[in-house]
């Protein structure tokens, strides 16, 4: 009986096709610290998944989603990689970004003529560019095939793709999905989906 048990344990450990439930401590994919210790404590690997897509679901814009990402922006720009905003719903306020320590000389804002037709295409090109470290985008909707292409592009370059949405996504391949809500003094984040661990964890951040 012991021999069979050992053989089964060995199979479970070696075969990547076998899902072993929640084992976030075994997470080995690259991550970048979020800059928020409480958030890193609940994210698989302890940070934002690099070379992957993250979807941030917020009921309304401007509740603090960009403050959440300021440490990441500082890190990306400080490493000499480009920070790209694709079709933002508002013009980024440069003085506030400078005051927050973001090197705006590494920042690029890209407009698209037709959001439905061009946004996914622009994101894919930017994610594949070797100088890109982070792409922020505000798609209304993306077909499943576009999600898959964006994930492949991010994985090949190691860049991070952050997509902001207002609700349920269709066919999303995001490695991480977060829901943002307002709480007193900051944000409440709930993990809807996390590659390498179950969703459901909640954390409050005072931003």
TrEMBL record:
SUPFAM superfamilies: P-loop containing nucleoside triphosphate hydrolases
Signal peptide: none
NCBIfam families referenced in this protein's UniProt entry, alphabetically: ImuA_translesion
Name of the featured protein: Translesion DNA synthesis-associated protein ImuA
Source lineage: Bacteria, Pseudomonadati, Pseudomonadota, Gammaproteobacteria, Methylococcales
């Amino acid at each position: 009986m012991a021999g069979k048990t050992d053989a089964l344990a060995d199979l479970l450990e070696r075969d990547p096709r076998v899902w072993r439930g929640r084992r976030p401590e075994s997470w080995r994919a690259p991550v970048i610290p979020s800059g928020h210790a409480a958030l890193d404590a609940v994210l698989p690997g302890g940070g934002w998944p690099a070379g992957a897509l993250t979807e941030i679901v917020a009921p309304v814009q401007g509740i603090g989603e960009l403050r959440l990402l300021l440490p990441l922006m500082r890190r990306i720009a400080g490493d000499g990689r480009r920070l790209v905003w694709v079709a933002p719903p508002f013009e980024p306020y440069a003085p506030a970004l400078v005051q927050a320590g973001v090197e705006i000389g590494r920042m690029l804002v890209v407009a698209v003529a037709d959001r439905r037709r061009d946004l996914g295409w622009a994101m894919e090109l930017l994610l594949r560019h070797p100088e890109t470290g982070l792409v922020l985008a505000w798609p209304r909707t993306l077909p499943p095939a576009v999600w898959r292409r964006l994930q492949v592009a991010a994985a090949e370059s190691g860049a991070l793709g952050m997509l902001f949405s207002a609700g349920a996504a269709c066919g999303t391949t995001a490695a991480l999905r977060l829901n943002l809500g307002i709480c007193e003094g900051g944000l409440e984040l709930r993990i809807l989906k996390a590659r390498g661990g179950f969703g459901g964890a909640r954390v409050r951040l005072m931003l």
